[in-house]
Specification:
single chain, alpha/beta, Rossmann fold, six-stranded mixed β-sheet, four-stranded parallel β-sheet, 15 helices, 13 strands, 15% strand, globular, binds pyridoxal-5'-phosphate
C-alpha cells in the first residue's frame, strides 16, 4: 500500500521530491508543498472515524504529513468554536463564530498546531535540534514543544518583542537569540544558518510540513459546524501561510469525500502598518512590495511574506477580499471582542475583528452568512498594546462606607 504522503512538489514547476527536510525547488527555487495520495486517503477516512479520534488536531492524522502517530504536541488543537451571539448582534451577522486559538495548548496561539506537526515530522526525519525564525508566538511554541520532547532548541526573534513573548521563551530554557532587526532580518539569518547546520528550523527547512498544521483550523471548523463549510471566513495574515492552508484544508475535505464542493469566501486581514499583501490586493496587483513593518500587531509583522503571492491567489480564487486596520482599530477590535464575548485576544485578534467589522459594514459579509473569524493568539501576551486604553481599577480602603460613597447604598441607584 502506498503511503498517504506521496512527495513534496514544487508549487511553480511541479517537480517532485522525496518527503525529506527540503523546502525549495532546485530547478526554479519555487516553494515545495506536500502532495498526498487522496484516492488512498478517501478509502480510509470517514466522519465517524474522525469523531472517534483524539480530542486534538491528531484526529485528522490521515491528512497530516507524518508517517506514524503524532508524537509531539499531542494536545494541540481542537479548540472551541464559539457561537458569538453578542458580537454577531452588534455587527448584524446572525450566525457568527469565533474559532478560539487563544486557548490552544500549550502556548496559547495557533502556532501550537504547526509546531506539533513540524516537530513530529522533524523527529521522524531524525532531527535532534529544533529551531525557528519567529515574530513571537512561534518561538514560544517551539521552545515549549522542544522542552517536552527533550530536543535542543534555538529560537530567533526580533529585538522589539512584547515582554510576555520573550519570557514565554526563556522559561523553557532554549537558546533565545534576539536579532537586532526586523523579522525579515531574522528570517534571512535563519535561512543562512539552516544551510549549514542540521537543525529542524520548523518554518525554514521543515516549512512544507509545518504549514500543513494550519489546515487543522479548517478541518475543525467544518466538523464543529456539524460538517458544514462556513460562507465567509476572516483570517489574519503574517506570511500568508495560514490563509492558504485554511483554503487547502476545506478543499481537501471535499477531495476525500467528507463534504460537498466548497464555496467559502476567504478574506485576509492585515495591520495597516504592515500590509504588503492587503495593499497589493487593494491595488489589483498579484505581486506585493516588501515593506518595513510599523504596527502594534507584532505577531503579524512580516514585511516580506513568504506566502504573500499564494495568499493573493487564494483570496481571488475563493472570491474573498483583503482589508487593513489601523493600530487604533486593532485596540478597538480587541476590546470589542473582550466586551461582547469574554475572549481576550492578542493584537492579531484585534486585526481580525477590526477587519470583520469593516467587511460587515461594507456589506461584503451579510446578515445570513455563516461566518467564522479566526482568533489566533492570547491577549495576555500583548498587554502593552491595550494597557493604556482600558482605564484603571477603582481603589478604596477596606471599608463599607467608602464603598458606598462610590457606589451608593443598596437599593439606591
Ligand atoms: C503567526 C501568526 C499568524 C499568521 O501566520 P502566517 O505566517 O500568515 O501563517 C496569525 N496570528 C498569530 C497570532 C500568529 O502568531
Amino acid at each position: 500500500m502506498a503511503h498517504k504522503m506521496q512527495s513534496l512538489v514544487c508549487r511553480e514547476c511541479g517537480k517532485e521530491y522525496p518527503t525529506e527536510a527540503i523546502h525549495v525547488c532546485e530547478l526554479c527555487f519555487g516553494p515545495l508543498e506536500v502532495k498526498y495520495n487522496y484516492e488512498e486517503i478517501k478509502q480510509k477516512i470517514s466522519r465517524s472515524a474522525i469523531e472517534a479520534g483524539p480530542l486534538s488536531l491528531w484526529r485528522y492524522l490521515d491528512l497530516l504529513p507524518v508517517e506514524g502517530q503524532g508524537s509531539i504536541g499531542i494536545n494541540a488543537g481542537f479548540t472551541p468554536l464559539i457561537r458569538a451571539k453578542n458580537l454577531g448582534a452588534f455587527l448584524g451577522i446572525d450566525e457568527l463564530y469565533i474559532k478560539n486559538d487563544c486557548v490552544n495548548h500549550p502556548t496559547l496561539s495557533f502556532k501550537d498546531r504547526v509546531v506539533a506537526v513540524a516537530l513530529t515530522r522533524a523527529r521522524e526525519l531524525g532531527f535532534e535540534t529544533a529551531a525557528c525564525a519567529s515574530t513571537g508566538n512561534l518561538a514560544n511554541s517551539v521552545a515549549a514543544h522542544a522542552a517536552q520532547a527533550g530536543m535542543q532548541c534555538y529560537v530567533f526573534i526580533p529585538s522589539d518583542l512584547e515582554a510576555a513573548k520573550v519570557l514565554g521563551n526563556l522559561i523553557y530554557r532554549p537558546k533565545v537569540i534576539e536579532v537586532e532587526g526586523t523579522y525579515d532580518d531574522v528570517n534571512r539569518l535563519c535561512s543562512e544558518i539552516a544551510g549549514e547546520r542540521r537543525w529542524a528550523f520548523v518554518n525554514v527547512n521543515i516549512r512544507p510540513y509545518y504549514a500543513e498544521g494550519s489546515k487543522t483550523l479548517a478541518f475543525e471548523t467544518v466538523e464543529q459546524l456539524g460538517w458544514r463549510t462556513p460562507d465567509q471566513v476572516v483570517v489574519p495574515m503574517a506570511s500568508g501561510s495560514l490563509l492558504t492552508k485554511i483554503w487547502k484544508g476545506l478543499n481537501e475535505f471535499h477531495k476525500v469525500g467528507l463534504i460537498g464542493p466548497v464555496s467559502t469566501k476567504v478574506h485576509g486581514a492585515q495591520a495597516e502598518g504592515c500590509s504588503p499583501i492587503s495593499t497589493a490586493f487593494k491595488q489589483g496587483r498579484d505581486f506585493f512590495k516588501p515593506v518595513k513593518p510599523n504596527t502594534i500587531a507584532k505577531s503579524l509583522a512580516i514585511g516580506n511574506p513568504a506566502d504573500g503571492y499564494y495568499a493573493l491567489i487564494t483570496v481571488a480564487e475563493s472570491g474573498g477580499v483583503m482589508e487593513t486596520v489601523t493600530d487604533d482599530e486593532i485596540i478597538e477590535g480587541i476590546k470589542l471582542l473582550a466586551q461582547t464575548e469574554g475572549v481576550f485576544a492578542e493584537t492579531a485578534g484585534g486585526v481580525t475583528v477590526g477587519v470583520l467589522q469593516k467587511l460587515a459594514k461594507q456589506g461584503i459579509i451579510k446578515k445570513q452568512d455563516v461566518t467564522v473569524a479566526y482568533i489566533t493568539g492570547n491577549g495576555l501576551k500583548t498587554q502593552e498594546a491595550v494597557v493604556g486604553s482600558v482605564g484603571r481599577p477603582i481603589r478604596i480602603p477596606p471599608s463599607l462606607a467608602k464603598f458606598e460613597q462610590t457606589f451608593g447604598q443598596p437599593g439606591e441607584a
